[in-house]
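Ticket 4471: requesting a sanity check on a complex prediction with NAP. Repro inputs:
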Amino acid sequence: MEVFGLIGRPVGHSVSPPMHEAAYAALEMDARYVTFEPAPEDLETAIEGADALGIRGLNVTIPYKEDVLPLVSPDPLAARIGAVNTIDFADAPTGHNTDATGVVRAFDHHGVDVDGAAVVVGAGGAGRAAAFALAEEGATVRIANRTVTRAEALAEEIPGGSAHSLDELEVLLADARLLVNATSVGMEADDETPVPAAALHADLAVLDAVYAPLETRLLREARAAGATTVDGAWMLLFQGVEAFELWTGREAPVDRMNEALRGAL
Ligand code: NAP
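Returned C-alpha cells:
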C-alpha cells in the first residue's frame, strides 16, 4: 500500500483526505491519505521518519509551510516563495509549492490566460504564493495590502512587482485582467469584501482564495459586474491535483477530486 498524507497543526478539519482518496478510488490505487500533527520540536524527526517509513508524499499546512524549508530540497519556485506545501519523497525529500501552481491552474481551468496586469490583494502566505506564481507566468503583479510595508517587502522580491495600499484598488484594477483576493476578508462572513464593487469590471477574472464560504461577496459582485469568477475551492483543488501528479506521475482524475472536495467543504 502507498501512503500519502498531510502534516500541520491542527489538521482535523482538512478536506485533503477525501479529495486525495477519491483519486485513489477512481484510479483503483492501493493507497491511503493520512493526517499527522507533530509537535514543532518533532518536525525534523517527523520528516526523517516519513522518509524512512517509505511515505510517498506529504502535504504541509499551517504552521509548518516555512519550517519544513530547511528540511527538504526546495524546487526553485518554493525556494523563492520561502514556503513548501508538498514534499515528494521519491529520492531525497524535495519541496514544492503547489499553492502557487494551483492559482495558475485554477485560472487555466476557467480558460483565463495568465498575463497582463494582475492585482493580488494580501501579502501573507496565500498572497506570496499567488504573486510569485503569476509573475512566473509573465503577469505584471501589483500587490495591495492593508499593511503596506508588507506589500513593499513582497513586491521587492517579485520581478516587476509594485506595492500599494487598499485605497488604490479602484485605480489598480481599471486596466487589470486578473484579481486574486488572498486576504482572509470574507471568510466566515459573506458580507465583507476587500475590493469596492465599483472597481470590478467585465474584463477581469477574479479568484477568491477564501473557500468558506465558497460564494463570497467579492465573487457575487464580480459576477454582477460581468467578470469571470473562480472560487477558492478551485485553488484548493489544483494544489491537490498538482501534488497528486508530482507524487504519482499520473494524470489526476480532476472531476472526481473536485466532486469529493466540494462534498467535504
Ligand atoms: P495570512 O498569511 O495570515 O495573511 C492574511 C492576509 O489577509 C494579510 O495580507 C492580511 O493583511 C490580510 N487581512 C487580514 N484581515 C484583514 C482585514 N480585516 N482587512 C484587510 N486585510 C486583511 O493568511 P493566508 O494563509 O495568506 O490566507 C489568506 C486567505 O487565503 C485565507 O482566507 C485562507 O483560507 C485562504 N487560502 C486559501 C487557499 C486555497 O487553496 N484556496 C490556500 C491558502 C490560503 P495584513 O498584512 O495587513 O495583516
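Notes from triage: The first strand starts at residue 2 and ends at 7. Leaving this open until the requester confirms.
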